[in-house]
Amino acid sequence: MNKKVGLSPEGHLLANNFRVPRDANSNSGLNEELIGQLIQLGVLSTLSDTTQPIDLHRNFQGWKSQRGMLLDTRRTRAFRDAIEQTIRGGETVIDVGSGSGILSMFAARAGAKEVFALEITSAIELSRLIAQRNGLHAIEFIQGDAGNFEADSKVDLIISEFIGMYVLDEWLHFSAFAKVRDANLKEDGKVIPKSAQMYLSAIDNHRLYVERGQGFWETPVFGFDFSDVLAVETTRPQREIVYQFEEKSIVDTASVASFDFKTSKVDDYFFEKELEFTYAAAGFCHGFLGHFDLEVVEGKCISTSPLESSTNWRQSYFPMPKIAVEAGEKINLVFRTFKNSESGEFCIGLQLKNRRAEEQPPELVYVLDSAS
Ligand SMILES: C[S@@+](CC[C@H](N)C(=O)[O-])C[C@H]1O[C@@H](n2cnc3c(N)ncnc32)[C@H](O)[C@@H]1O
Q1: 12 lines ligand 1 (CB under 6 A)
Q2: Residue 30 counted as domain residue
Q3: Quick one: 137 and 206 in the same domain?
Q4: 53 in a domain, yes or no?
Q5: What is the mean pLDDT of each run of 10 residues along the chain (372 residues)?
Q6: What is the torsional sign of CA 117, 122, 126, 132?
Q7: Whole-model pTM?
């Protein structure tokens, strides 16, 4: 067998291509002794707390996804400019999750003395070749989970694009970045990107609600009553990635969280905050729209606002059964993030507060999966 099976710290998982059935004792269907022996034989390997899920891994090893990120010129130019502005010549750099190798190549071209390009997927093989073809010999490509990397001496700069569709999605990649940063960055060293600020807006947009939210099931479909699906979609709602540019649909926007990437820890990604949205005019709440601003380098920001031109992150729509709101009324919402203890998935919970009983659904839980 040349495929490796990985076990998550909870013992849940998972193979490169197949899942291990669970049982009541170990969650993996294998007893402890057998697991130990398989690890010793090299058939099983333990996944660390910075290893991305297998689906995301598959997504990133394909060049379709790397191409998608390169094609986002607002993103890629902003990182290029930040790297060129920061590197003066002779620096040592770590690129955490180098993917296509683009950020490492920007760093090497700008004059870095040594760049460690750390990438977990097999995309690294081609990116190594591409760097060589472009005469960039200062880059050392190292395949594996970046979280465990320790350079011989501390480095000047750490670059990494660990920003999920709504910042938090790639929390395991961020966790790897934070570990690499804490173990390897000089005290006066720099990180790119610098910070992020997340926002959530209440939205009034019937069309989006019908096309991507529960609204589709509210009226007959080809003359048939499909409203049973409404109940299911309400208890298991899905975050939708959209590009939403109708200014008038944004009712009010609240600040959700901010992160300083020189100091933030992965624990900071787990939080609870109460948000308030004011309806100046009467209308509807068709759910919420998340976006963020990314400060790539001091003073240079990419906004993923629905009112700016689109990026590969677009916006995250959190659909919710519609509620009518009166002029001057406020919507109160508890926004919380947590890890599902069973599946290990990163979740966002949204709980409306202070509504009339019939409009007070239980907390709606959205699983973030970046591959969407
Ligand atoms: C969003 S992509 C960015 C790729 C490239 N740096 C760019 O900016 O175009 C993130 C990359 O990080 C890699 N990655 C995620 N977690 C990692 C980890 N723990 N160790 C190494 N690579 C990781 C993924 O496989 C993926 O190629």
Answers
A1: no
A2: yes
A3: no
A4: no
A5: 40 37 46 67 59 68 90 97 98 98 98 98 96 98 96 98 97 97 98 98 96 95 95 91 86 98 98 98 97 97 94 96 95 96 93 79 85 44
A6: positive
A7: 0.86
